[in-house]
Design a protein that fits this description.
9 strands; alpha/beta; 4-stranded antiparallel beta sheet; 5-stranded parallel beta sheet; 5 helices
């Protein structure tokens, strides 16, 4: 079935239930890794990292009784491929309504691939101060790293070929919770 120009859905790798289980597990792992949850902040990389950060924060609050600070980070101007993505790239708002300096920050994103998005996020985050530590949580790790970046918390590892893509759909943005392997047709 055609998804967009030249891309076909190859395999569904997560439905809503599997996605929820992965997020709950990741939230437990994040909470267990930090001694003081009051110093924890979850920052979502726009676009799909933002609802992931919110879901993780809600789950931590439900399980631990304390809600970590949450925010969003727009990395558009920090990308190393900015000139290739659009003549006038769309800038979105970064929202960090707290000081990151005393906190352990968990950057949240939907898919970890080459590592370049995370490198841009680190550059952007550092402009807001020096966090106590920075960790990385991703829903899907698909491999193929170009930079020495690894996630601390992973929902699912999915080996892919260079012809394949991962499409994460989240209810807050896409109206459904599911993840697909897509292939060039």
């Amino acid at each position: 079935m055609a998804e967009s120009v030249g891309l076909l859905r190859k395999a569904k790798i997560m439905d809503a239930d599997r996605m929820e289980r992965a997020i709950v597990r990741m939230a437990h792992e994040i909470a267990e890794s930090e001694r003081d949850l009051s110093e924890l902040a979850l920052i979502g990389i726009r676009t799909r990292g933002v609802p992931l950060a919110e879901r993780l924060a809600r789950t931590i609050e439900k399980n631990e009784g304390i809600r970590p600070a949450t925010g969003s980070l727009d990395i558009t101007l920090y990308r190393d491929d900015l000139s290739t993505i659009a003549a006038q790239p769309l800038l979105r708002k970064t929202e960090l309504n707290f000081d990151i300096k005393p906190r352990v920050v968990v950057l949240c994103d939907d898919v970890l691939y080459t590592g370049r998005t995370i490198r841009a996020a680190l550059d952007g985050l550092i402009d807001y101060g020096r966090a106590k530590a920075i960790r990385l949580a991703v829903l899907i790790d698909r491999g193929h790293r170009e930079l020495p970046i690894e996630a601390n918390f992973v929902g699912k590892r999915v080996p892919t070929s260079s012809r394949e893509f991962i499409k994460v759909m989240l209810q807050e943005i896409d109206g459904a919770d599911e993840t697909w392997i897509m292939e060039r047709g």
